[in-house]
Automatic annotation (TrEMBL):
Assigned keywords, A-Z: FAD, Flavoprotein, Oxidoreductase
GO MF terms, alphabetically ordered: electron-transferring-flavoprotein dehydrogenase activity; flavin adenine dinucleotide binding
Name of this protein: FAD/NAD(P)-binding domain-containing protein
Record carries keyword Flavoprotein: yes
Gene3D superfamilies named among the record's database cross-references: 3.50.50.100
PANTHER family recorded: APOPTOSIS-INDUCING FACTOR 1 (PTHR43735), FERROPTOSIS SUPPRESSOR PROTEIN 1 (PTHR43735:SF3)
Any one Pfam family match given in the protein's UniProt record, by short name: Pyr_redox_2
Length: 388
């Protein structure tokens, strides 16, 4: 067993950012143990394109074998699941250094959120997950009519990818809200609404739809089925309507991936929607029994929107907190999390989109140039290439 003191990070897809920050600040007496249940890192922002654009599956994946150079004391445990959380140790699914228990000085949870296909990987092996994306891709291509449930960024971006690949494809988007991307500058939502209507998308705003349990997300149905769209009270529509589709994608947003917390016997560490309760400034867990844990990203209740930008911003805060405590300064770092200004860019295929920066809307060409064209894939993948 190593004499090094461990800083455990659970979840490599978002945890890589804390790992990179800590790599620069931890003393040689400490090592990072980055644990990932899949044998790859999964890039959620690119999954919608990876599931619609032919031969683009690799956009969503990155190998974990080169995160740290062979000479580094830091280590990645890929294909390894954390099954239990204790006060200062975690239990894992595979033996490591002669044990399935990894002790730590501090731990960071970056377990993200659970989504429906195609945003959620279908398998823990890359080979299996690629097949899942190919299945979704074939379904979208062969579908006569696509139904997307959810008027947030996820639903809009999926519609954009489908319409880019198949401009004549019949696509219906159903949103409970009367406006798209609620909570941000309404001008962005209006602009996206106009874009979709110009592309021939059938928008059903202020309405809900129940997708039966026998209709899996992102799977081609044997034949078109009829779905009932129910208008919200006060929406102006008097009665339900029907829409036919043979390919349904549920894009209603993520649900915190925090079953590990409750399964470890700490239900009080979660709020009403299942997010991990953290101190809003330090992002340290407020549950006393888990006081040596921090969390960031979609799995926790940190102030602000659940976006990739927020997650990346929270990572260095947590890293600074941990580094300060490890250094024995007796108190946490002065680096704290503050809810960021409104920053959101929604792509609509690789050549279009809308956005808000610091509360101000930005033109479509800017979003296309900055985000839509490449989705920041290159910079994300680069994070996993450690330097010797």
């Amino acid at each position: 067993m190593s004499s090094l003191k461990n800083i455990v990070i659970v979840g490599a897809s978002g945890g890589i950012y804390a790992a990179r920050a800590l790599e620069k600040t931890l003393p040689k007496s400490h090592r990072i143990v980055l644990i990932e249940k899949n044998d790859y890192a999964w890039y959620h922002p690119a999954t919608l394109r990876a599931s619609t654009m032919p031969s683009a599956e690799d956009l969503a994946f990155q190998d974990l074998s080169k995160v740290f150079p062979s000479s580094s004391q830091h280590i990645v445990l890929s294909g390894t699941e954390v099954t239990h959380l204790a006060e200062k140790s975690v239990t894992i699914s595979k033996e490591f250094e002669g044990s399935t228990t990894v002790s730590f000085e501090y731990a960071i949870l970056v377990t993200g959120a659970n989504h429906y296909a195609p945003s959620e990987p279908s398998d823990r092996s890359k080979e299996g997950a690629v097949e899942g994306l190919k299945k979704a891709m074939a379904g979208a291509k062969d579908a006569k009519s696509v139904l997307v449930v959810g008027g947030g960024p996820l639903g809009i971006e999926y519609v954009g990818e489908v319409k880019h690949q198949y401009p004549d494809k019949k696509v219906t988007l159903v949103s409970k809200s009367s406006s798209l991307i609620s909570g941000f500058n309404p001008k962005m939502g209006k602009a996206l609404e106009k874009t979709m209507k110009n592309k021939g998308v059938d928008l059903r705003m202020g309405a809900s739809i129940d997708v039966p349990s026998d209709v899996p997300s992102a799977t081609l149905l044997p034949s078109p089925r009829s779905f009932t769209i129910v208008p919200a009270e006060g929406s102006g529509d008097a009665s339900p309507s029907e829409v036919e589709a043979d390919f349904v994608v549920v894009a209603t947003g993520g649900r915190p991936n925090t079953s590990l917390i409750s399964n470890s016997g700490h239900p009080n560490a979660l709020n009403d929607v299942g997010a991990i309760r953290v101190d809003p400034a330090t992002l340290r867990l407020t549950e006393p029994a888990l006081g040596f844990y921090f969390a960031y990203g979609d799995c926790c209740d940190a102030p602000g929107p659940k976006t990739f930008v927020s997650m990346k911003g929270q990572a260095p805060v947590v890293a600074a907190q941990v580094a300060s405590l490890v250094a024995g300064k007796g108190k946490a770092s002065k680096s704290t999390w503050k809810e960021p200004p409104q920053i959101m860019m929604v792509s609509f295929g690789p050549k279009d989109g809308q956005g808000v920066l610091f509360g101000w809307t930005v033109p479509a060409w800017f979003v296309a140039l900055v985000k839509s064209r490449e989705l920041f894939v290159s910079s994300w993948k680069q994070e996993y290439l450690g330097k010797a």
